[in-house]
Design a protein that fits this description.
The protein is an alpha+beta fold. It has a domain of 184 residues. It contains six helices and six strands; from the N terminus they run H-E-H-E-E-H-E-H-E-E-H-H. The chain has a six-stranded mixed sheet with strand order 1-6-5-4-2-3. A hairpin with a 2-residue loop joins strand 5 and strand 6. Helix 3 packs across helix 5.
Length: 303
C-alpha cells in the first residue's frame, strides 16, 4: 500500500509537460544591430515589477460578490524569490544588450510583468487535481498568460513596448516520460528570458528611432494613487431593507403619471337605457302610380 501511494504521488508530480507559445521570437538583424551599436545611450535606472493574478478554480469564486456588485480582483505581488530572479535576469539581459548602464546612462526604464492564472503545486493538490475527475485518464490543461510592458521616454514623449506569451501545461499519465524535458518551472524561466530579449530588441528599435538618447520618464500614476487615503465612508451594502419589506427602486427617470380621461361628464341614470329621438322624422315617399282603379260591375246570378 505504501509503495502504491508513492507511485501515485510520483505520477501526480511528474504526469505533466509544459509548452510555450507567443510572439517572442527575436529578429537576428535587429539583435546584431543592437550589439554592434555603441553610439546609443543606455538607461541609468531599471525598475522591475512583477505582479499577477493567481490561479483560482471555478469553485473557489462561489459566494464572492453579488449580482449587482461584483468583486474587484486586484493583482498580487509574486513571491520574493521569483521576483528577485526575474529582476536579476532583466538586469543581466539589458546590460548585455547595451541598454542598461548605471554609470554612463541616463533616464529610466520600467519593466512591468503581469501574469494571469499562474499556479504552483500547492494549488494543484488543493483544487485542480481534486475538482478535475479522472485527471490521469482524460488530459486536462492549465494556461498561464504573461504580459510584459516596457515604459521609457524619448525627447518626443513617452514610449511603451508590449510583449505577450503563453504557457500551457498538460496533465496526463502518459506525460510522465516528457516531464524531465518539459518541466513547468524550467519552461517558465526560459519563456521569461525569451520575453526579456524580445523586449530588449523592441526597446532598442524604438529608442533608436527616437534619437538614441533616453529622456526622463514621468512617475507612475499607480504609486500616487496607492498612497492616497480614503476621503469618505465605505460603500454601503447592496441590501439596505429588512426581510419582508419591498426594496425601494431608485432610477434616474421620473415615475409615469396617468393621463386625464377625455370624457369627464356624468351620464344620468334615467337616460342610460333610452334611445335619443331622431332629429327629422322619416316620411313615406309618394306612390309612382297616379291612376285610379275602376269598380267592377256586380254580376247577377242566373235564374
Amino acid at each position: 500500500m505504501k509503495n502504491f501511494s508513492l507511485a501515485l504521488a510520483a505520477a501526480a508530480l511528474c504526469g505533466c509537460a509544459s509548452f510555450n507559445s507567443g510572439d517572442v521570437k527575436v529578429r537576428r538583424d535587429t539583435a546584431a544591430a543592437m550589439f554592434a551599436d555603441k553610439a546609443i545611450t543606455p538607461f541609468a535606472e531599471l525598475e522591475v515589477v512583477w505582479q499577477g493574478f493567481p490561479y483560482k478554480a471555478p469553485t473557489e469564486t462561489i459566494g464572492e460578490g453579488s449580482a449587482s456588485k461584483k468583486k474587484i480582483v486586484r493583482p498580487q505581488p509574486v513571491e520574493p524569490g521569483d521576483a528577485g530572479d526575474f529582476t536579476q535576469d532583466a538586469r543581466e539581459i539589458f546590460t548585455e544588450a547595451g541598454l542598461y548602464d548605471p554609470d554612463r546612462g541616463r533616464g529610466r526604464l520600467r519593466l512591468e510583468l503581469t501574469t494571469f492564472g499562474r499556479w504552483n503545486y500547492g494549488d494543484l493538490f488543493r483544487s485542480f487535481l481534486v475538482d478535475t475527475g479522472f485527471i490521469f485518464i482524460i488530459p486536462a490543461s492549465l494556461r498561464v498568460n504573461y504580459f510584459l510592458r516596457s515604459d521609457f521616454a524619448v525627447p518626443a514623449g513617452p514610449v511603451r513596448v508590449e510583449t505577450e506569451a503563453r504557457n500551457k501545461t498538460t496533465f496526463h499519465l502518459l506525460m510522465a516520460p516528457l516531464y524531465p524535458f518539459f518541466p513547468p518551472g524550467r519552461k517558465e524561466a526560459g519563456l521569461l528570458r525569451q520575453m526579456l530579449w524580445r523586449s530588449a530588441t523592441d526597446v532598442y528599435s524604438r529608442l533608436k528611432a527616437g534619437g538614441g538618447v533616453p529622456a526622463d520618464l514621468p512617475a507612475a500614476a499607480g504609486k500616487k494613487a496607492a498612497g492616497e487615503t480614503l476621503s469618505g465612508p465605505p460603500v454601503p451594502p447592496d441590501r439596505t431593507w429588512l426581510p419582508g419589506e419591498e426594496p425601494a427602486v431608485e432610477t434616474d427617470t421620473p415615475p409615469i403619471k396617468p393621463e386625464t380621461p377625455d370624457k369627464t361628464w356624468v351620464v344620468p341614470e334615467s337616460s342610460k337605457h333610452e334611445a335619443p329621438p331622431p332629429a327629422d322624422p322619416i316620411k313615406p315617399a309618394a306612390a309612382d302610380r297616379s291612376w285610379e282603379t275602376k269598380t267592377a260591375p256586380e254580376e247577377t246570378p242566373d235564374d
